[in-house]
Each structure stands twice: as C-alpha cells, then as structure tokens.
Amino acid sequence: MTLVHGTQVHGVDVDTETRCSHYDTERDVIAIRFPCCDEFYPCYRCHDAVADHPREAWPEIKRAAEAVLCGVCGAELMIAEYLACNSQCPECDAGFNPGCAEHYELYFEG
Ligand SMILES: [Zn+2]
Ligand SMILES: [Zn+2]
Ligand SMILES: [Zn+2]
Q1: Residue ranges of the alpha helices (H) in the chain?
Q2: 13-64: per-residue pLDDT in tens?
Q3: CA distance 67 to 35
Q4: Domain count, the chain
Q5: Which of 54, 67, 69, 98 could form a disulfide with 31 if both were Cys (CB 3.0 to 4.6 A apart)?
Q6: Ligand closest in space to the Cα of 44
Q7: Alpha-carbon distance 106 to 2, whole Å?
C-alpha cells in the first residue's frame, strides 16, 4: 500500500503518483477506485494481483461516483469528469495516458 496525497492506493510497486509495475510512464498517474472493494488501485492488473475477490466495473448509473484519483494533485474526479477530461486533469492540467481509453470497459460499464 502506498499513500498518494493521503489516499491509500493498493497494488504492485505503486509509487507516490500512482504508477505501478504494469504502467509506469510519466503519464500513468491515475488510480481507480473499484466498486467491489471501495479501494484504489493503479490498474486492473494490480487489483487482480493483490485483491482476494473478483474485480467489478462501475455500472453506467454511477457516473457521479468519485472513483478516479489524480496522482499528481490528489484530486478525486467523478467518473463522468474523467471520461470527459480528454486525458488531462481538470484540477491540475496533468496529462493522463490516453492509452487508458482502450480499456475503459474494464473499469466503467456502458
Ligand atoms: Zn475489488
Ligand atoms: Zn498495475
Ligand atoms: Zn490533477
């Protein structure tokens, strides 16, 4: 477990801006709160590596849940804000990895 701006983030080799052993480029700076356990992980592979239960994705009706943590400024973004942010933190303008959009469905249904 690593503290990121005071928020606990679980996973494998998590750094203080939420990079992990699976995604560790300069722009890999978000963590996702998973609805199955209410815990933040940098990626689905971290969840699968350390959680003791099957992973769940957020249902479409939960777009107002604050489920995305910016590792640069510590802001907790609503899912709707994150999906609309065009890979840039609305709070601090940090760039997020645009490649994450290729597997949104692992985190967010709909
Ligand atoms: Zn979980
Ligand atoms: Zn990971
Ligand atoms: Zn930010």
Answers
A1: 44-50, 79-83
A2: 999 999 999 999 999 999 999 999 999 999 999 999 999 999 999 999 999 9
A3: 8
A4: 1
A5: 69
A6: 2
A7: 23
Ligand 1 midpoint to CA 39 (Å): 7
Distance 73 CA to ligand 3 centre (A): 4
pLDDT in tens, 51-86: 999 999 999 999 999 999 999 999 999 999 999 999
Please give the distance of CA 76 from its chain centroid, rounded to a whole number: 10
Domain that holds residue 73: 2-106
Of the candidates 26, 28, 25, which has an alpha carbon nearest to the alpha carbon of residue 9?
28
Token code pair at residue 46: 């971290």
Cα of 108 vs centre of ligand 2, distance in Å, is 17
- For residue 15, give the amino acid letter: D
Distance 33 CA to ligand 1 centre (A): 8
